[in-house]
Amino acid sequence: MSLIGILNCNKKQLIQQFNNINLQKFRVNQVLDWIYDKGYTTFCNMTNFSNELQDLLSKHYYIYRPKIIKTSKSIDGTIKFLLGLNDGNTIETVFIPEINRNTICISSQVGCVVGCKFCNTGYNGFKRNLTVEEIVSQVLIVKDYLNSWNTSSNIITNIVVMGMGEPLFNWNNVSIALENLQIGNSQAISPKHITFSTSGIVPVLKQIINNLDYNLAISLHAPNNDIRSHIMPINKLYPLQDLLEVCKLYNRLNKNKLITFEYLMLDGINDSETHAKQLVKLLHGIKCKVNLIKFNSWEGDNFNGSSMDRIKLFQKLLNNSGIVTTIRCSKGQDIMAACGQLQSQVNIKMLQ
After folding, report:
1. What are the φ/ψ torsions at residue 110 (nearest 5 degrees)?
2. What pLDDT digit, counting tens, does each position of 45-73 carry?
3. Would you say 17 and 23 are in contact if contact means Cβ atoms under 8 Å apart?
4. Which helix (H) or strand (E) holds 260?
5. H or E element: which one contains 262?
6. 319 CB-near residues (< 8 Å, 6+ apart)
7. DSSP string, 74-95
8. 92 an active-site residue?
9. What angle (nearest 5°) sits at the alpha carbon of residue 143, between those of residues 140 and 146?
């Protein structure tokens, strides 16, 4: 009998599975408390379980952790984790400490299937979707590393699904993972502190926006279809008019929420005053804010980032037109941990 990864299961699934092995329902909450509130990685020493019960759980389940292959720490305190998966693939996860919050940026795929031309992850190709446990364990292993389990409050305040991959192409696993990360008392993450970013997979967005508890960020990066299709091939499948119709529907269904449109500033491509005016017209009638992002270079890229003066002028034009616009403070550029810099081309066997 093969073991089941308990992190792959949500609470409802575990209740049914425990019933099948003659364990009472209340045992589910006890196990999840040990895993998600206390950070246990084995069933041994779960003190409210008998030795027989610990053995029974060990015969049916395991608690997954990837291997930390390497950590890199930025001068700004950001920590990037290169994590090794069981099949030899690697992913990167980023811990971003700030004054008022601590954020973990997690990945949803090994590589990325979308292939945006400005992104190092997409440049290095796509291998596969991550499993639920591989998504959940990114948060848990960072908490292991920070030795943060024995605290009365969660050191991690925010989760952003903005690492490697397009989460909507793996939404079944991503949604269960985010559900599991809300388990616990002191260590649970509230949905209002979880944000996922998507390039705009229109059919999936239509399916999920009616019951979406998380914050939505759209990787827009262009004010018209010509530019967007050039730098984001996904736009040829789901052009701006279709994407923005779904955004308007999201506004109608979620009246108290803003959509964040992420806009990477690329010199000579999407950063002129004309582009700003086009963007204002494009977003008219959508309840949103725009987050301008400075381009973070990587080996092999073919772009130059806009100057800060150009970014500030672009921001001013949007703000003056009534669109709340901020400039993202990039973290971890010196360790290749900033937006668009993550990659997965290292194989574990090469490092052994």
Report:
1. -85, 105
2. 899 999 999 999 999 999 999 999 999 99
3. no
4. strand 259-265
5. strand 259-265
6. 325
7. -TTS-EEEEEE-TTS-EEEEEE
8. yes
9. 155
Distance CA 4, CA 8 (A): 8
Active site residue 105: no
Mean pLDDT, residues 112-131: 90
Residue 199: strand, helix, or coil? coil
Place 185 in a pLDDT band, splitting at 50, 70 and 90.
Answer: confident
Residue 28, both tokens: 């589910």
Kind and range of the H or E run holding 172: helix 171-180
Catalytic residue, from 105, 116, 288, 339: name it.
339
Q: Which of 92, 133, 134, 262 is catalytic?
A: 92
DSSP-derived secondary structure for 114-164: S--TT-HHHHT-EEEEPPHHHHHHHHHHHHHHTT-SSSSS-S--EEEE-SS
Helix (H, G, I), strand (E, B) or coil at 285: coil
Which residues are 327's β-sheet partners?
A: 292
Tell me which amino acid residue 99 is: I
Closest C-alpha to 228, from 260, 275, 163, 196? 275
> DSSP letter at 2?
P
**Phi then psi dihedrals of residue 305, to 5 deg:** -80, 150
67-73 sheet: strands from edge to edge: 67-73, 79-84, 90-97, 102-105, 158-161, 194-198, 215-219, 259-265, 288-294, 324-327
Share in percent of the chain as helix, strand, coil (round to 5): 40, 20, 40
Longest Cα–Cα distance in the chain: 70
What domains are there in the chain, each with its CATH number?
A: 4-62 (1.10.150.530), 67-351 (3.20.20.70)
- At residue 105, φ and ψ (nearest 5 deg) are -100, 115
Q: Provide the pLDDT for residue 9.
A: 98
